[in-house]
Design goal:
alpha/beta; Rossmann fold
Amino acid sequence: MLALFGWRAEGDLDDTPRCVMIAAPHTTNWDFVFMLAIAFALRIHIAWMGKDTLFKGPLGGFMRWTGGISIDRSKRGDVVGEMVARLKAADALILTVPAEGTRRKTKYWKSGFYHIARGAQVPIVLGYLDYARKAGGIGPRVMPTDDLEADVAKIRAFYANIPGKYPEQFCNIEFAPPRDDA
């Protein structure tokens, strides 16, 4: 399929059986199709989280078969804690997360991928889809540290020149400031 569309897969996971992989930029529904095709071409089985409505009806089985994990966004839950537990319990799990959380332009990235990786003590793998070069794959790894800003700076530097299908939809790579819930 990749060759049919003029795309190629790049990189490999070497000896990284458990990780959180960012899927970015995420600006179109085509990203999902290319992400799956690239994972197949690289011979890696990824898991990904999606809203529960994707898993209803006739496509539900297909979504699970492709690695989908249903998330009910109508209920407040501990998705980060659940994913940390899954990663810690697994011998091999590549949890792929679109850090933007949506295809539309947003002000901030979702920070869940970072907290999952940090809690599970696994690296963050920088997965990408470069629509200008028609290449996608696996970039460097960032092991989360106590220095969030330095970690985000590494991530931001990697994605600086990787355009999505709709580059104007790709948001700045930064997290929302912590909320004061007190």
